[in-house]
Specification:
By secondary structure, the protein is an alpha/beta fold. It contains nine helices and eleven strands. It has two domains: 134 residues, D-Maltodextrin-Binding Protein, domain 2 (3-Layer(aba) Sandwich), CATH 3.40.190.10; 84 residues, D-Maltodextrin-Binding Protein, domain 2 (3-Layer(aba) Sandwich). Bound molecules: 1-O-pyrophosphono-5-O-phosphono-alpha-D-ribofuranose (PRP). It catalyses: 1-(5-phospho-beta-D-ribosyl)-ATP + diphosphate = 5-phospho-alpha-D-ribose 1-diphosphate + ATP.
């Protein structure tokens, strides 16, 4: 096991700490900014560290830094009391967690895209590449369209360019990745923002602390920054 993890997991103070699962990557900085504006004094090691567990002793907070897609898993299993997860991940993962607050950060949307030459009408067995197989399958089922889903782990835009798939289902933020790879959006599916999610048991056992955090975050989200 990674020493950095081992070092941190030897102390098992789960009751003392409120444990929050944070998604590494594009959401991380915005989520961090939100927590800081909500009055949580997060040390600089959050900004420049490879640690996977960071304790903020003064506030009795423990942060675990995970892959975005895994945040709901940690929260569902109760190893994190709460977490920050994109709506895309929530739809894909269908975990048994409470979605408590729309943090309104990392705004983007889910879309279907293809090469401009692609003609859906003549395609009898469409292949769809995506990081979100459940979400995509649900969407096309609703549309009444039969498709084959090909699960990839990233660089989804590559799939139509090299003939692996006809269309992709992916998030669009600035639209740059689609544009620079010569793809066009064919359908807009749903808007995506990040959510604050909570483990149902933690919500009962640590109600006061979780409510306080939700209220502080809500104030910032609704425009009344605490700092
Ligand atoms: C995401 C998404 C798109 C891109 C969209 O990928 O999968 O590829 O960002 O952003 P844009 O509209 O601003 O260009 P990410 O960078 O998370 O990496 P990935 O390809 O490994 O999933």
């Amino acid at each position: 096991m990674d020493e950095r993890v081992n070092e941190n997991t030897t102390e098992n103070n789960t009751d003392r700490f409120l444990t929050i699962a944070m998604p590494k990557g594009r959401i991380f900085d915005e989520a961090l900014g939100l927590l800081r504006r909500a009055g949580y004094d997060l040390p600089p090691e959050f900004d420049d560290s490879r640690k996977l567990i960071i304790d903020v002793e003064e506030a009795d907070l423990r942060f675990i830094l995970s892959k975005p897609m895994d945040v709901p898993t940690y929260v569902e299993h109760g190893v994190a009391d709460a977490g920050v997860a994109g709506k895309d991940v929530m739809i894909e993962e269908e975990r048994d967690v409470y979605e408590v607050l729309d943090l309104k950060i990392s705004e983007c949307y889910m879309a279907v895209a293809a090469l401009p030459s692609y003609d859906a009408k003549t395609d009898i067995a469409p292949k769809i590449a995506t990081k979100y197989p459940n979400l995509a399958a649900g969407y096309f089922r609703e549309q009444g369209e039969q498709v084959e889903i090909i699960k990839l782990n990233g660089s989804i835009e590559l799939a139509p360019l090299i003939g692996l798939a006809d269309r992709i289902v992916d998030i669009v933020s600035t639209g740059r990745t689609l544009k620079e790879n010569g793809l066009v959006e064919t359908e807009t599916m749903m808007p995506i923002t990040s959510r604050f999610i909570v483990n149902p048991v933690s919500y009962r056992m640590k109600a006061d602390r979780i409510d306080e955090m939700v209220e502080r975050l809500e104030q910032v989200v609704e425009g009344g920054s605490m700092r």
